[in-house]
Amino acid sequence: MNAPTSAEDWRARAASLEIRNKIFIDGEYRDAVSGKTFDCVSPIDGRVICQVAEGDAADIDAAVRAARAAFEDGRWRDLHPRKRKRALQKLADLMRAHQDELALLETLDMGKPIRFSGAVDVRASADTISWYAEAIDKVYDEIAPTGPEARALITREPLGVIGIVVPWNFPMLMACWKLGPALATGNSVVVKPAEQSPLTALRLAELAIEAGIPAGVFNVVPGFGHTAGKALGLHMDVDAIAFTGSTEVGKMFMEYSGQSNLKQVGLECGGKSPHIVMADVPDMDTAARAAATAIFFNQGEVCTAGSRLLVAREIKDEFLEKVMASAQRMQPGDPLHPKTVMGAMVDDRQTERVMNYIEAGKAEGAKLLCGGRRVMEDTGGYFIEPTIFDEVSNDMKIAREEIFGPVLSVIPFDTPEEAVKIANDTIYGLAAAVWTSNITTAHRVSRELRAGVVWVNCYDHDDITTPFGGYKQSGFGRDKSLHAMEKYTNLKTTWINLG
């Protein structure tokens, strides 16, 4: 079938799309034990895509039991590394083969432009699975430097059953950042996708079976956070939770761990990332485009969004003119149109949340330079203009709280030291950036910024080889890179007496 080239082509493909909408446990789809379902609503036009099985504690328990059985009998854990590698490689290949289908599910489900669903989300997700597949037979254990009377082996062993809880902004990619290392290290998983965007996870589970991953190893239970998510966090037979989402919910999973079996918890939570532009910015046009993309890409629904733009006072007015020009070129449009660069907010609740922050910014005295309105309301969808506030102080609500929408707060500074102080004055520490022509400034500022990722003269550049995660209330533990495999394994020392 030819790849769609227009919005009409994508709509025609959507009309014939076969959607998986049931819970996936032990290699098969099934209804929720309760028989309940919930509406899966497309933010593009507000229509109900399908009814999705609503998992709760009973379904989570069934999924955990299936995952535990698969782990204990070794059908995946004890499979030869070459065979596990081939199965994960096959899964990545199948994801690429089904790129248009997966991209369409992602766009229909959460409103992002189709051009990015395929070129960014599906591509990066498949590449992540493929990269961890390759790592399976290339990561070695250790031998401690003991004397001749002993040999001490240091090995990493899979934890067991991993609960994976992922957000709605990058449903497939965030899942694969966790699925890759969790499966590569021999664990079984239970995925709880966000209720706003469960469709790609349910399809991936089926592709995993086709790829040769044994039944019971990869399970998916859609449902709500206060029922299915909580049940997963409290389950006594889950060995670890890998979570991406808000700091508020991340704290809940810490509590669930303490209330249950002290399961390990890895958290990638919120952010309020500072994007610092020094007076000696090497290329103002490039930096301005980056500043706009950093906050308006994916409708601002990005944990690392550069939502606080710190600009040297002497260049602020000139720089903001360029940022606003870039924002003007990033207006919302039909997510199914191949040229659209900014899509819909994920749902009505998030739309209302963002609009409330915009009203708060006005009330606190920030100067609205552009945007601030809902648009395309006649479509039935949820669209908000790129919004920029100037004259923001760092104690304002819009500068301190994670909005998760296309709202930029501009804060001036006079010295690099002041910029760093403002940047670090936040409960978050996920990402940051600095633009400067001075290599000394670049090194000093990047060292002083309390963030897990710091970009210099760019924004949001990354690679699967580099770890991703935050400081402070942005969480702990790392996704991506070989370091991510540490979250899904236990260290064991085996001391052999040779004396």
Detailed description of the structure:
The chain is 38% helix and 21% strand. It has 499 residues and is an alpha/beta fold. It has a seven-stranded mixed beta sheet, sandwiched between helices. A hairpin with a 7-residue loop joins β15 (374-375) and β16.
Give the SSE layout.
Blueprint: H1 7-15, E1 23-25, E2 28-30, E3 37-41, E4 48-53, H2 57-72, H3 81-97, H4 99-110, H5 114-135, E5 142-143, E6 150-158, E7 161-165, H6 171-184, E8 188-192, H7 199-211, E9 218-220, H8 225-234, E10 240-244, H9 247-259, E11 264-268, E12 274-277, H10 284-296, E13 308-312, H11 316-328, H12 348-363, E14 367-370, E15 374-375, E16 383-384, E17 387-390, H13 397-400, E18 407-413, H14 416-424, E19 428-429, E20 431-435, H15 439-448, E21 453-456, E22 471-472, E23 475-476, E24 489-497
Parallel strand pairs: 7-8, 7-10, 8-9, 10-11, 12-13, 12-20, 13-18, 17-18, 20-21
Antiparallel strand pairs: 1-2, 3-4, 5-6, 6-24, 11-23, 14-17, 15-16, 19-22
Helix pairs in contact: 2-8, 3-5, 3-7, 4-5, 5-6, 10-11
* Oligomeric description of these chains: single chain
Task: Tell me the fraction of residues in β-strands, as a range.
Answer: 15-25%
Q: How many strand segments? A: 24
Helix content: 25-40%
Count, helices: 15
What characteristic shape results from the CA principal axes?
globular
State the low-pLDDT regions, or none.
none
Task: Tell me the major beta sheet.
Answer: 7 strands, mixed
The radius of gyration computed from the alpha-carbon positions, rounded to a whole number of angstroms, is 23 Å
- Taking strands numbered 1, 2, ... along the chain, how are they ordered across the largest sheet? 14-17-18-13-12-20-21
Q: Kindly state the mean pLDDT as a whole number?
A: 97
Distance between the amino and carboxyl termini: 68 Å
Structural class: alpha/beta
